[in-house]
Amino acid sequence: MSRKLMLVLAATAALAACKREPEAPAAAPEAATPPAAAHTFTADITEADFADMVKALSSDEFEGRAPGSVGEEKTTAYLEAQMKRIGLQPGNNGSYFQDVPMVETTADEAATTMTLATAKGDHALKFGTDYVIGTRTGQTEVKLDASDMVFVGYGVDAPEQQWNDYAGQDWTGKTVVMFVNDPGFHAKDGALFGGNRMTYYGRWTYKFEEAARKGAAAALIVHDTAGASYGWDVVKNSWAGPQYDLPAKDDPEKRIPLQGWLSAEAARQLFADAGLDLDAAYASAGKRGFKPVPLKAKATVSLKSSITEKTSRNVIGVLPGATKPDEAVLYMAHWDHLGKHEGEEGDNIYNGAVDNATGVAGILEIAEAFAHQDPKPARSVVFVAVTLEESGLLGSKYYVAHPTFPMDKIAGVINLDAMSVGGKSRDFVVTGKGNSELEDMLKVYADQQGRVLTEEGNPAGGYYFRSDHFNFAKAGVPALYAKGGNDLLEGGVEAGKAASEEYAKRYHQASDEMHEGWKLDGVVQDLQALYGVGKDLAVEDKWPNWYEGNPFKAARDTMMKAEPAKQ
């Protein structure tokens, strides 16, 4: 055990006495060559200290770090102790904590029923096997009685694409059934919705939001492993046990009474009973001119849940800027994971070692580097460990609505989520590559390390919309999400893909634990580069922007116009 960890555990104990689809990295071009020597930025980022923190955060003692649990209390106390040890100051009006109000909703799976009445008879579906369902209404019982089911393609209303899957109907009281991803995913037209690169219209969160705006009573997404970029087990595990949300008063978005997923098998049976072929439906849904299709079925649902109002916490530390303390560079990572699944046989603690003990340890290592930096940065550097990422990016959503630094004072955001632990790589994967000028800053350090910037290996997965930086992006703040790639120095692309496939088996499973096969020299390499980007942002007058054509650029431009000095 390192001296650093011993100090932190001691501080944590003292505090206690006082009272969050794995991404497939892309292979680098074959022309990439190993660097002669990686650029070293600081001696304060080390494999040993990183490993100590990951071991602690992903240990069974932290019980999977579920928000609102004993595991949260241990996690947030640990993070506070770490920030104090590093020398970060409290980031929220004298406190390291920002309270995040939440509503915990737990479905009574045994008492919850879904029956689909079709021309072939009534089908009683099994929770977890055939479907998952939940509510964001805050009601303990929600019922749906013989609601007409209608297939709405991808459930998209995109005026700029001249596309509306909902056109021409009144959706009040109806159950809409839709595919995951967006029309570009299955279409052969590469220009349609960005082709194989998912747009926000492909995210499941958007689909429920749009169905609510249309007035539907329920929305069901048909699971497809390729379209979702994760298997049914990920859906099932993510929807098992307590589900969290912000109180309605803290969320202006309209909410649909019932929202959930159908397994591919259950959907295929539903379509077959209506005389439809599911594969043919995929083809028709990806063509312009698609019209909603009645499924000649009625859905009856009875959902019973327990509702508890709780409070979770974001943890915030800040290193005040020497000359521009009101301007900030922000590093972030989510501390939460899926907790402990009571009643589940065998190992029922979802430790979340990669997802996202690695990211939290990463921002703390970078904080250590900044704390020892001389000269001190001109701008403040903020480190935010957010809660409720696994529940829909809620902790970061709350922070953006209640920021400790105004959005127009944040030069840029760097997010660490599920770091690559396969070793050093020739490539540096920028999720959503082609978004902002932060990538130009990262390229400087990638070049010094002999690496190339690449896009994620599965752009159809929509990974840029699946982590906490996205809430900052929507507010206009350029946000970078990058990690080690798939072309490993030891073993090349083949070894990288094998490591990625192995992690895919562990993603959102109890088996996401730290193990001896991890190679952390690549993590250190990544952290050094990401530290370099933030260091440049913190000592210069740069105000990075989004590239032309990016949907978030308008909000950033408005910020720039408000303060001519930023232009």
Describe the structure.
There is one protein chain. This protein has 567 residues and is an alpha/beta fold. It folds into two domains: 3-95 and 320-540, Zn peptidases (Aminopeptidase); 105-307, Glucose Oxidase, domain 1 (3-Layer(bba) Sandwich). It is 30% helix and 23% strand. It has helices spanning 3-17, 47-57, 70-86, 204-214, 225-228, 232-239, 264-273, 278-285, 353-371, 394-401, 438-448, 469-474, 492-506, 521-539, 553-562, and strands at residues 89-90, 97-107, 113-118, 121-125, 131-134, 141-151, 157-158, 163-164, 175-179, 218-222, 243-245, 258-262, 293-319, 324-334, 339-340, 349-350, 379-386, 410-415, 427-430, 452-455, 479-484. It has a 17-stranded mixed sheet that branches. The protein has a two-stranded antiparallel ribbon with strand order 7-8. It has a two-stranded antiparallel ribbon with strand order 15-16. β19 (427-430), α11 (438-448) and β20 form a beta-alpha-beta unit. The longest helix has 19 residues, at 353-371. Residues 1-21 and 24-40 have low confidence and may be disordered. Residues 1-16 form the signal peptide. InterPro entries: M28_fam, Peptidase_M28. It holds the Pfam family Peptidase_M28. Keywords: Aminopeptidase, Hydrolase, Metal-binding, Protease, Signal, Zinc.
